[in-house]
Amino acid sequence: MLIHDDCLNALKHLQPSSVDLVYLDPPFFTQKKHKQRNRDNSEEYTFDDCWESVDSYRHYIEDRLKVCHEVLRDSGSIFLHCDRTASHYLRFALDRVFGTSHFQSEIIWSFRRWSNAKKGLLNSHQVIFFYSKTDQFKFFQMYQSYSPATNLDQIFQERVRDKRGKSAYRKIGSKPILIDTKKGVPLSDVWDIPYLNPKAKERVGYPTQKPIALLERVLALATQEGDLVFDPFCGNGTTLVAAKLMKRRYFGMDLSSKAIQLAQHRLENPVKTHSELLQKGRDSFRNQSTDIAEFLQQINAYPVQRNKGIDGFLKDGERIKPIPVKIQRHEESLDEARKKLLRACKSSDFDKKLLISFEAPSLSCDLKHNFYVIPSVLASYELISSTLLKGTSS
Amino acid sequence: MLIHDDCLNALKHLQPSSVDLVYLDPPFFTQKKHKQRNRDNSEEYTFDDCWESVDSYRHYIEDRLKVCHEVLRDSGSIFLHCDRTASHYLRFALDRVFGTSHFQSEIIWSFRRWSNAKKGLLNSHQVIFFYSKTDQFKFFQMYQSYSPATNLDQIFQERVRDKRGKSAYRKIGSKPILIDTKKGVPLSDVWDIPYLNPKAKERVGYPTQKPIALLERVLALATQEGDLVFDPFCGNGTTLVAAKLMKRRYFGMDLSSKAIQLAQHRLENPVKTHSELLQKGRDSFRNQSTDIAEFLQQINAYPVQRNKGIDGFLKDGERIKPIPVKIQRHEESLDEARKKLLRACKSSDFDKKLLISFEAPSLSCDLKHNFYVIPSVLASYELISSTLLKGTSS
DNA sequence: TCCAGAGATGAATCCACCC
DNA sequence: GGGGTGGATTCATCTCTGG
Prior knowledge:
- The structure is a homodimer.
- By secondary structure, chain A is α/β, with parallel strands linked by helices.
- Helix content of chain A is 25%, strand content 25%.
- At the A-B interface, helix 2, strand 6, strand 7, strand 12 and strand 13 of A face helix 2, strand 6, strand 7, strand 12 and strand 13 of B.
- Chain B binds a DNA duplex through residues 27-28, 30, 32, 34, 36, 49, 83, 85, 111-118, 123, 126, 194-201, 203, 207-208, 273, 275-277, 306-308, 344, 347.
């Protein structure tokens, strides 16, 4: 259900104590007008985030939070999305409306972002406050995998306390007792979820669009199938799309009729980016074994992850053009490795190329292609820099 | 320099406008008494974090922030460490004393933690607010490496704007032009720095001890050699130790004489954990190639990272004991793989073991050792679960 | 019914020992 | 002797009990 109205009037359309989850992404008090054009430039979406004063902003928010509180069931929760500009005001308002003791989590949505360097740190997170209406709230624990540094062997061993109260592993004879497989680590409050890619199909051109994956996680934590989800500032309707995909009922409101139209349209044809990054996580792109990574570090090169022919680029401030490096794999012949590197370089104008080989007998150089081969046993930053980096061609 | 006194009196010891960086880690308004014993149980360190009301806490902090503001140079900055309990109050205080426009960053210190599960998300971050005294503040940009998902090839291509103002890659003929090597991505405001390990030598037994690595990053961002660093709640003196190691001058105050003694002692013998984790990052423990990881996922097994003989454990809720799995590598013979798995299992009472082999001709089972070998071409969750997981022994 | 304090808990990490 | 792996330790915890 979608209503074009101020959410202050939500009670005209919703029963009190009927909603299981409120997710809202209100204006952030940026004091700016936000605009963005859609894909074919035919429409411009805007919203206004300018206020007379902090106080008027605070009142505006607090009044609407009160309505949210009223429509929520006792077992319900609210997730409030904010950026750093006014997060403290928003949390204050939540404390007042929901009560300090119903604060559950400060969720950090962390993402990687491309941006020009400014003075200072690159802002790459937003905050989601999670409050429950009462102490008895719906919550479905999720688990994440153990850290790679964890000693899993040991985690599976049963423990007891000895007489002095120290913990020890229970053993029969010399062998420890194994216990049932564990589920993993409870989900942390720092969520690394990629930002909606500028080219993602999921994008509809509305400002501040959130990835569906983020909303899916929120819905999975606090609702079941059939539950009612309410988004009082629904905008382009990401929350509602996520709800629809996950078989929750949904109700959205927005002051902009264009937003409502857009959301309506999205709900009829929900598109979710099938992104490998979103599904498998950033690390799935890491295809280098640690050996290779260490080798690259040794010769002072940047690692490159998504290229079969190039493993890294040599770092050197004085050179204008980077030099691609490939490290021969044990399952590759020297000639195969050579071909892969050349193929990968075909479409660019690298002037020199470097192959590190474990089977080449000595340093060699094919001057026609400016192709250097260095045996891995000799490879060092010093040798490389004296051979390749000195004769700079710009 | 270390002074045993309330930092409200800092001006007795410090000139106004003399300090380059203030880092503080004040009480968090947890309304609890915090204690911890040191390594050999000879000393107990405590501090009190109980307050009459939020207001008294707020005043306490605000008064001390005013002193910090006064001792700071115009080019100086303040980093205020807080947890989620009262971060909004602290930020209000900073806004009032330093001015909203001097807010620079909300830094998220994120870590992995071990704690028993509760209803809700596992709290695993703390917040550091970064404010500058003026707009002209010292800041030394740091860079981190590109995300593995980044297409580095493309980053190195020069870009220009076309007539319509859209950016495009500059090409000569069909080949893109390569530009100078880049420095990396500007440091983000989400910092993943491991929590101080329970067994770390760096630990001195004082509650809430922060890792030196965290402080080093703060100091590197906002100070140079010789600069003066002030910690008004220095506790065990981590900030000062970091300052000393980085050749900054330092000044610490604390209300507890035990803390001052401890800090003094630490400064005389600064110990910093030489941690592989801190140096190389968590991913250095990941020694599995993506192929192996995908294979494990396919057969529904937990990956194990730190073991030459065991690559994973089969997941199954109904079984009592986990079953270790090894996947034969191409550079290993079947017999080597077999031996490695058996050796790794020696000290535990696993009842079944599974080896996935690319050279075994067919499924085989050594009943004496309960050792199963499955050819990799046949390996699937269905086969494995019907062969190994059904006949449960508890 | 609420609060304080005791008791149970669990995985991430460094360390030290062992081949 | 040096890399690998088992073991110990911890709680700006979390939960439960009893007064």
